[in-house]
């Protein structure tokens, strides 16, 4: 048998043929190119056209960037150095760097103060953004706004201290009475805080800011990208709690609360932000005597916060509406009262659904802070449009300045967007 | 009831504002600082430099008034205003005076209740075209596309000019001077029109200024000057005569360089009255006797301010033209100091 087997077949391979590499057109770069760029005639043509367009853009911008001048002191000097070649005049960024970041009136020897406040902000914001960090860090987050206020505005430390004590007193009262009756705790807390602020405010001696450890800087002297960041961070962090409250209020069964929330949201959403800013800067000046106006920065913060809170409220209302009714009923059947049900069952789920919407509003709000340049506050765009482009040295430099502003905003907004995607992945429980 | 409370509060606030505004001069002296409204930035007229110090032709007026009233040209709080916020800032008392290349018109003076105290720059609307267009007069601009800033008097002047000359044009509306510079350079419009000083300043920043010409026609009157609120004539006088002191100083040859020896006493009684060595002009205004001397020392006389900020030696390169002294054929003219 074995013989016949050997003879009946002319050839039998006795060893395994070694694996040969796949054909060149089915592997590596070639395969990728063929499948992704040249899979059909149309796609091939489109690829070539796209490559040509990219070449055109790069051919125009790269020499411009790499020939850039960084060290001259005016646009005309830039042009002398370049001798008609293409090249950017980045010197405006180096020469006006401090103005772009801090505005033109913030005292130069105090730049470390906003810098320190910025670094501390990263520390304070970390436990809010990343849940794995020790919860004790939240204590620093609670103190941070007062430290930042003192660092940036300077003046007497008593003012932020009194405000802080007022908040602490309100929190204590709320802890003590809020358990038994929410209303007593809530309004009692507000009353106590007001008393502390009035008494404390009266106790601060006149001129306490004159010889303070950190010299006082008025709000009008703030500017540059610092102002955008301050407005963005303050307004986002204030408008999220306010937005949650408005969203819950809009769903409330109590007609008065519901009515107030609906009117507020609909009114604010129906008015352009720039109108609110004009009201803040121009109209309010008519209602106050010249010496006792509310600080312009505060007015703008209030307006932007109200504006974004109305939008965030609607986003969160969407999240609340997306929850199945069974969740509410389940909370009720467990015997939870309203605050507990909201805190433990409803809001964690609703907020998770609302994350993309909230981030969308936050990014939009951050970019909207540039609108303050129309009410003559010198944020980054205000600095560029006003003082820098109006100086005899730099009149006529556009691409470099606005490109720089776009870059700064892109970095921050892209960071926010990446964080929100990370958060969504982390909170995704895989059902 | 509630309404009346609100209105009551408003009335009180209004009265307080009125009371505070009753004596601007005293307010400024008590505050130790002059609140002066300027633009958020206009080349040569007002802009902060790399160190954040304001400089410019309009800024010079603010500094002169501060020096006259407070003795210190640095005692000024510059309040930057936009075209939209400038009048409310002045009317609400946020600023004491406005020196922001503002055109003196009937309605602003009468209807908005401001007092223009004088003219520090006579401007007028002009046209700029690329040289290669081959145009030498605005009347040849039939069918041209024109870049024009919206919401300004220039827009109306333009329509009037083209209509009265029976020629047509196509407007390209733009928002700011910076934007129109880009539009004009990129060829989106054939002609750019705005105040002649602005055109000159804009052209100075071009890579090749010689490739663009300003047409000879000036189609409007734009007298620019500082202004104050109605109702405080004493303060209006202070600002008016501070400006006039600068103008008279040029006429009499008093400069910031020779003012020291002039102030020691001269044979010219008008110089002596101006500088306070004769007469009681300062006392009449409620100021020190040497108020005008301090105002002139702040930034020099009118000619020095002009040449230092917008004159022919600067990149902006404006000729004196209408803004020469009346003795040189211009319109700059101060009533006598006596």
TrEMBL record, chain A:
Record GO biological process: amino acid transport
Its annotated compartments are: Cell inner membrane; Cell membrane
Segments passing through the bilayer: 41-66, 110-130, 182-205, 225-248, 260-288, 300-323, 344-366, 397-416
Q: Which family does it belong to?
A: Belongs to the binding-protein-dependent transport system permease family. HisMQ subfamily.
Record-annotated ABC transmembrane type-1 domain positions: 225-420
Q: Does the keyword field hold Membrane? A: yes
Q: Name one GO molecular function term.
A: transmembrane transporter activity
Question: Does the entry feature the keyword Protease, yes or no?
Answer: no
Annotated protein name in UniProt: Inner membrane amino-acid ABC transporter permease protein YhdY
Keywords linked to the UniProt accession: Cell membrane, Membrane, Transmembrane, Transmembrane helix, Transport
The gene name reads yhdY
Q: Which InterPro entries match?
A: AA_ABC_transptr_permease_3TM, ArtM/GltK/GlnP/TcyL/YhdX-like, MetI-like, MetI-like_sf
**Record membrane topology:** Multi-pass membrane protein
Q: Name one GO cellular component term.
A: ATP-binding cassette (ABC) transporter complex
Q: Which domain of life is it from?
A: Bacteria
UniProtKB/TrEMBL annotation, chain B:
Give the Solute-binding protein family 3/N-terminal domain ranges.
33-262
* Entry's transmembrane regions: none
What keywords are annotated for this sequence in UniProt?
Signal, Transport
Biological source species: Shimia marina
Record bears the keyword Transport? yes
Q: What Pfam families does this protein's entry cite?
A: SBP_bac_3
Q: Which InterPro entries match?
A: Bact_solute-bind_prot3, Solute-binding_3/MltF_N
For this entry, the protein name equals: General L-amino acid-binding periplasmic protein AapJ
Cite the CDD domains for this sequence. Answer: PBP2_BztA
Could you provide one GO biological process annotation from this protein's UniProt record?
amino acid transport
Family per similarity comment: Belongs to the bacterial solute-binding protein 3 family.
Is Signal set as a keyword in this record? yes
Against PANTHER family, the record matches this protein to: AMINO ACID ABC TRANSPORTER PERMEASE, AMINO-ACID ABC TRANSPORTER-BINDING PROTEIN YHDW-RELATED
Please list which residues make up the signal peptide: 1-21
